[in-house]
Amino acid sequence: ALAASSTQGALGRQYDVRAEMQAQTQQLDAEFVAALAAVDAEFGGLEASVQALDAQCQGLRRHVDRARRAAGGVAAQAALLADEQRELGLRQAVAAGLLQQFTLSADEARALERVDGAFFAALDALHAKRRACQALAHVGAQQAAAGDLQRELARLEERAHAALLRWTLAEARALGRGDAPAFSARLGPALRRLESHPALFAAATEEVARARRAALHGAFLDALVRGGRSGTPRPIEAHAADAPRFVGDMLAWVHQAAASERELLDTLLDDAAARAQLLAAALDGVARPLEMRVQQTVAALDAPDAVFRIASLLAFYAEMFAAACPPQAPFVEAVRALAAQAQARLGATLGALADAAVAAVDAHGASPALDVPAPLHALLAAAASVLRQHEDAALHNGDAALQDEDAVVACVRGELARARAEIRGLVAQAGRLRAHEQTMLELNIAAAAQHALGAFPAMQAQCADDELVQRLQLQLLDVLKLKSRLPFDRQGGSAELVECVEQFNRSLKAAMDLDVARLVSRLHNHALARGVCEQTVQLFVAAYAQLHQQIMAADPPPPLRERLLDPDTVATLL
């Protein structure tokens, strides 16, 4: 029982404990529910907040999605911009290199503002950069940049050359101060730099030509009138009375001036053609005063040899000037024209002597002695002097043979032939001389020509007398036949023939009418006279032998046979 009561008591205590615990648990649950209600309320507010946050997150997500999509395009653009930035960096580096290589430095740009030693170095650098830029223009990737640089360099180069031209023109004017002017050492390089610009170079060289033309003009006039500074050399016009020396001194002065001018131009220009053009332009300054004095001098001369010396000098110097200047330069043409005028004057002076010889014969007729007119001797002497000088000039120039077509020889030959032809016509027209006497006068003239001109091969035709000799022999044969009274060309009776033979025999023995030597005694060439005499006698004896044969063949009567001399006897008596 005790045990049962103890057990019951224990169970009661357990029930109490359990109830107490249950009560406590319920209290705790109530407290928990109460507390949980507060928590649930808090969680409800938190849930509302979370839902609000979720809604905001959804909106943010949408914004983020849109931003992500937008950010994708921006990234691509950023990548493109980065690539462009890298390319721009490369271009900037290339541009910096191009600017350094193809543009002038500040010092070079300042050097181009004033023409001095640094100017030419800067100009050369500018030219080199422009040539390099032109080569760069052929590279496809650099054409645009090269074009811009090239235009800028061209602008700088144009401005530099304009400044250089202004300086060159100012310096060129100093070249007009005398025949040996002092000038800047930079003038030559300046002109050579301008050669690549034809318009600028033409303006510069024209100013140089104008200055040198004026300088040579003044120097030539001083040399003519004043001479040297101390009186040595004397003025060229002091020798004006000696025409060949006067003209020769003027031409020698011009030749020396041309040589000095060539040396001056050699220091200024590299282009040979430009130097020749400038030399010709400078010599134009002396053309007019030289032309006037030479024309006056030549026009006043009457001596053919002096005129020829001047003509020869002019022709010689014309070729020398043509070798240094352009062949068709005005100065060269002026000297050639003077040479042609002197050549024409030579023909006029020879023609005047020929006219004087013709006039002397016209006024006084041929002399009884068949002498050559004195004016014709003067013509021959002048012709010989001219031909001698001409031959010497030809030998000096390396041409030993005178050509038949030569103007000088043709002039001499023409005037001499004209004088002889007119004298022959006047003598024949006057009728004072018989035919054989006219021929002997022509032979005397030919002998005089042979004596004066026989040494010149080109004049042999004018000195030849073979035709005249043959003509004289035939004329003398006719004279002998006429004086012999023999019937060479007609037939007569025996009585008439006997009388003719007797008269011929008397004339032959008297040695008067049939004296051929006396007929040719007025020939000045005695050897020629002897030859003509012998040939004429032979012709007459041949004609007589033919007549003798005809008479003997006709069986003449004894009186005629006795009186008819044989040809050998006639030849011996003649």
Describe this structure in words.
The protein is mostly helical. It is built from 20 helices and no strands. The chain has helices spanning 2-102, 106-111, 117-136, 143-173, 187-194, 198-225, 243-268, 272-299, 304-324, 330-364, 374-396, 407-430, 435-453, 460-463, 466-484, 494-510, 516-519, 526-553, 558-563, 567-573. The relative contact order is 0.04. The model is unreliable at 398-405 (pLDDT under 50).
Tell how many strands the DSSP assignment holds: 0
Shape: rod-shaped
Biggest β-sheet description: none
Report the sheet-strand fraction.
Answer: under 5%
Arithmetic mean pLDDT: 79
- End-to-end C-alpha gap: 241 Å
Radius of gyration of CA atoms, rounded to a whole number: 64 Å
**By helix and strand content, what is the structural category?**
mainly alpha
> What is the N-to-C succession of helices and strands?
HHHHHHHHHHHHHHHHHHHH
Number of helices: 20
Fraction of residues in helices?
over 70%
Which regions contain 5 or more consecutive residues with pLDDT less than 50? 398-405
Topology:
Layout: H1 2-102, H2 106-111, H3 117-136, H4 143-173, H5 187-194, H6 198-225, H7 243-268, H8 272-299, H9 304-324, H10 330-364, H11 374-396, H12 407-430, H13 435-453, H14 460-463, H15 466-484, H16 494-510, H17 516-519, H18 526-553, H19 558-563, H20 567-573
Helix pairs in contact: 3-4, 4-5, 4-6, 6-7, 6-8, 7-8, 7-9, 8-10, 9-10, 9-11, 10-11, 10-12, 11-12, 11-13, 12-13, 13-15, 15-18, 18-20
